[in-house]
Amino acid sequence: MDDLVIGIDLGTTNSCVSLYTEGKTKILENAFDGRITPSFIYFSPDGEIVIGEHGVKMSVHKPENGIYEMKRLVGRQFDDPELQKSLKYFPFKVTASPSNLPLVSVKQKSAICKKSPQELYTVLLKALKKYTEAKLEETINKAVITVPAYFNVAQKEVTLEAAKDAGFTVLKLLNEPTAAALVYYFENDTDKTHRSLVYDLGGGTFDVAVLEKRFENIQVLCVAGDTQLGGHDIDTCLLNYVYRILRTQYGYDPEASSDDKRRLRLKCEDAKKELSTVESTVITINGMVSKHPKIKISLTKDEFEAMTDHLFKKTIDILDECLRSSKISKRSIQEIILCGGSTRIPKIQKLVSDYFDGKQLNKFVNTSECVAEGAALQAAMLSTNRKQKIDELRIVNVLPLSIGTWGHSLCHDMSFLIKRGTKLPTSVTHVFVNTETDETTFTFDIYEGERLDLRKNRYLGTVLLTDVESAAPFQKK
Fold it and tell me: Is 261 annotated in the active site?
């Protein structure tokens, strides 16, 4: 019998594995019977590597050895401003490799162990593979893995390489909002032509996508997002608030201790979750400040919403820009689908609903599992195992970021070869003129991004053309 194919949601905060078989989708629990696994790796001083919830607990006594939010490091240069912003709040140490890539440093067995984001991804994926095989009692080598819709080429390549190193053949990298839409369309009867918008705010990334279902085809019409915007940044707003109080009222700087930084982030995350259901909460800090053994910081829902309002509105701005740039009217959207753990926040739900003039939102029962379930459905469509037979939907995606090259040799203008939002696959023809009479090779750099100044976009690589016809010599009359 042909191999089973699983779906993996490789999240910033949590990861989840799902399988579609014999007509239904199910979540595959990890070794501790958890339906989701924290994307957390703990390197113990004695050399052991612990994944997930157990690793989170073990890191309490040595937070600098607990690695999390690897997704924020993947596919980035060390001097990337967004990466540098994240490093301020990590208790673990990140240094630059000779090629300017980030390396996470931890101490094990009296030696410094350095791991690239790709290697950390591999460790996590190996653990998920081990859990899955134990649950199914068979070898699993094939998978569909979800990625943010706004992931760039470098981030996707790192994900593919890490999966390969973990022993997976990846049949497809599926956009997270598309995965959520797949679940919706399989669970709900829709008209022959139906247009939906997916608002996906997770732990570390934000995506918005508009999809249109026409009979058995799903067309992604537009995507937008921010790979540095999510629940982590909401927690950081609370964390900065707590930092200010400790400095100004108690004369204590918590950033001097990696242990305190990690403890306070966890407390702020808990406070955020509580304020989704209650009007106020108290952050209690024990034994951190010598002359103040117990500190209580009160926080109301209104205060929380005020300090995070700029982040919430930023997601609406991205949503609005996505619709306007693709010339899609919000009135043409029949369904708004929320996914990602951060969409549990009532203020976010209100902002999204208000943008669509009070339209009712479609909220998954478990927002932390729907993306993995969508990946499982896509996996079943690509599987040849008869247990995974499923009615296939054809998904047509779009290019999330424009591709271009130098527009003029004397300046740094970006010449856009393929614009974002172009249906994939696609082909394009561009004429390059060779003005040199003795040159038979031609090179040009390829960039990804939307900035008119090419230097502010992401360099992807260089294309070399050989056997180019040289220019005809200039003839004087």
Answer: no
